[in-house]
Amino acid sequence: MQSKDLLQLAEQFGSPLYVYDAEKIQSQYNRLTKAFSKVENLRINYAMKALSNVAILQLLKDMGSGLDTVSIQEVQLGLHAGYEPDRIFFTPNGVSLEEIEEVAALGVQINIDNLSILEQFGAKYPNAPVCIRINPHVMAGGNENISVGHIDSKFGISVHQLPHLVRIVENTNINIVGIHMHTGSDILDIEVFLYAAEILFDAAKNFKNLEFLDFGSGFKVPYKKDDIETDIEELGRKLSKRFNAFCTEYGKDLTLIFEPGKFLVSEAGYFLAKVNVVKQTTSTVFAGIDSGFNHLIRPMFYGSQHHIENISNPKGKERFYSVVGYICETDTFASNRRIPEIAEGDILCFRNAGAYCFSMSSNYNSRYKPAEVLWIKGEGHLIRAHETFDDLLRNQIPLPTTVGTV
């Protein structure tokens, strides 16, 4: 997308505003499938927690994607978007047996990540096809909050508990059709990924009726110019060769599954915000925008860096700014960042705003959530309206007049 297109959308739909480029999502999907074209049975399940707008789900469904979900509400959204139940994968953590049973009744593939639930579910539904999430005890990921495959992680069944796991399977006769792992996000070293894959291959040898192996995702995307990223093409060459060899050893052609979220939608997203005030202090020039971490929490939560452009003055002389939000506490998007000269009323564009941005937004400070627009075939389509005051009140119930106040 070009700056002029984004400026036009900001004028048309107002700010703050999320914009997603359908063409970029398509190109990322094609890049991943091409990298693993040597695998006969490949399946991509989009990790919808990254961006769960129904229009985005429909777009990916048309590309051939399945869904990776983590809650029954995400399952229901996937069904609403038109996915068949057998195209939806349910990988929860710490949910109740009742929620798992409710999802299983919908015909969705269940992925269980702890021994207690596996034993209970297996005893009640021995014929239900189940996938098992293994914790390979591999530390990977760009931040401790998104590293989920290490020994202290709450996710998955420890690879060291395989004897116990196998005993539960034998005692319940539960039907294990898949093995799954996910080590973390922002993985740079593909050798770490390949090492974890070997652990998954070894675990898979304990189960004779497998239909697929799910390697999760966590691929690193670039967040700034010349930033490093996961070499998907090299990973594709190496893992495809090893996966095909394992299928030969196993005696059956299995399906290789990935569940990318950020990889598919991060670079497709733009977040547009208007500058309310430029404030000079004794040491800093602040650019205060009409948004805050209630709309884009990643910089405050993860310390992540989003490239910021002044699309109203892209060729202006660069100055140092700290870009901050309007939330009534520390609310910093960038500190001392070189940005073309900013004036009040300018539109700033945050790049890589497609993943874990709107989906983690809130109404903190009783602020409205922004609108979302999908840019497809040269046109902007509103796929979520700006919230209104009625949205804030929708589920609130005032005290009856008969109760009174203290």
From TrEMBL:
Molecular-function GO terms, alphabetical: diaminopimelate decarboxylase activity; pyridoxal phosphate binding
Active-site residues, record numbering mapped to chain: 328
UniProt binding sites for pyridoxal 5'-phosphate: 218, 356
Biological process annotations from GO: lysine biosynthetic process via diaminopimelate
Residue ranges of every copy of the Orn/DAP/Arg decarboxylase 2 C-terminal domain listed in the record: 18-354
Residue numbers of N6-(pyridoxal phosphate)lysine PTMs: 49
UniProt KW RNA-binding keyword: no
Residue ranges annotated for the Orn/DAP/Arg decarboxylase 2 N-terminal domain, each copy included: 23-266
Keywords: Amino-acid biosynthesis, Decarboxylase, Lyase, Lysine biosynthesis, Pyridoxal phosphate
Catalytic activity: meso-2,6-diaminopimelate + H(+) = L-lysine + CO2
Pathway entry: Amino-acid biosynthesis; L-lysine biosynthesis via DAP pathway; L-lysine from DL-2,6-diaminopimelate: step 1/1
Family named by the database record: Belongs to the Orn/Lys/Arg decarboxylase class-II family. LysA subfamily.
Main function: Specifically catalyzes the decarboxylation of meso-diaminopimelate (meso-DAP) to L-lysine.
Protein name (Swiss-Prot/TrEMBL): Diaminopimelate decarboxylase
Species, as recorded: Flavobacterium agrisoli
Name of the coding gene: lysA
